[in-house]
Amino acid sequence: MFDDLTGRLNQVFRNLRGVGKITESNIRDGLRDVRRALLEADVNLDVARDFLTEVEKKALGQEVMKSVQPAQLLIKIVYDELVTLLGGQESRLMTSKRPPTVYMIVGLQGSGKTTFCAKLGRMLKTKGKRPLLVAADLQRPAAQEQLQVLGDSVSVPVFRGETKDPVVVCEEAQKRARKLSLDPIILDTAGRLHVDDELMRELERVRAKTEPTEILFVADGMTGQDAVNSARAFHDRLAFTGSVLTKMDGDTRGGAALSIRSVTGEPLKFMSIGEKLEALEPFHPDRVAGRILGQGDIVTLVEKAQATIDEQKAAELEAKIRKADFTLTDFLDQLRQIRKMGSLTDILGMVPGMSQKMKNVKVDEKALTHTEALILSMTPDERERPKILNASRRRRIARGAGLTVQHVNRTIQQYEQMLTMMKKMRKGGPGQLRRVLGG
Description:
eight-stranded mixed beta sheet, Rossmann fold, alpha/beta, Four Helix Bundle (Hemerythrin (Met), subunit A)
């Protein structure tokens, strides 16, 4: 996410680090490179120009301490302006005083609306809500079936009407929700391959009848300026109240994220950072700005860990580490906990300074799958006593997992390295733990 933009901006700051004194000339040279980086990231031209005007005004008008280097000054100002550009602070979903609350989801076909509906339903359910998904997309073949499958996978009910009129379907869904005390309602509306008047008239009718508390525009984060142009067209007709960026785990340049909020004036509410239904994050402007500048996002990383790591298992693991009683079964549990948090690339990208160090490193996401398959191919006794894994046992395990003996050897080596680190931690106490992690 934002890899290209992050890399280009960091190159600008690296070039300034060799400059000892802040002058109008070197600040303007740096901003020229920032402008190029923004435009190459597909940021809207007007947005980029206004952004740089504000940065330049603040950079040239500041009283600067002698100890502050040009790069440090520019990073601070660019960060502050990025936060402002992205909305300043998190914008949470509004709720209706008269339930059920209605969230109307709109966007072009293929932007990820239906998947987002299921992700939002799952997220709201984990917060104690009783959401209802409504299959109001009657244009795209199998759209209703797709929402049904997704709803079933997250145990959120789906309403499917018998009529071909989406307005009637939404009205009936509201009645069902009131009867069953379901709240909120999430309307998965129809999209098109491009904005047309017929689509907009249909969405306007749905809006008029359901009176949604929020209308959320879903934009494909990989489409850059196309997403911005679509957002402007939808906002002109529907006056949506917030945006959602999908596919942010893909090869996205970040232009849509930096442009949509400025062009429409409406906040970014969520971003989808993976295919899994739990891969949805509230949009925090300050955290995203930190990611763009390569500063990581340790707060989101901690929140992900708190949401996925079982506290009882964590306590049991701590006890095992103290006793140096860490088995391959425990190793497998830890791998599964990590996988719940998302892709390794995203997790590492949240660690401050790690995104640039990992820039040219290809993270093999399949490695965890291979390791899990190998450990599951072992007998319970082998998992508890890895020392008994002789050559014949390793060949059997490799065949069972459909992998090679080299894969088995690598997994055992990783496990033994972790054991060694744990023994050092146990012997050295907290101080040694810090030294091991620092190393």
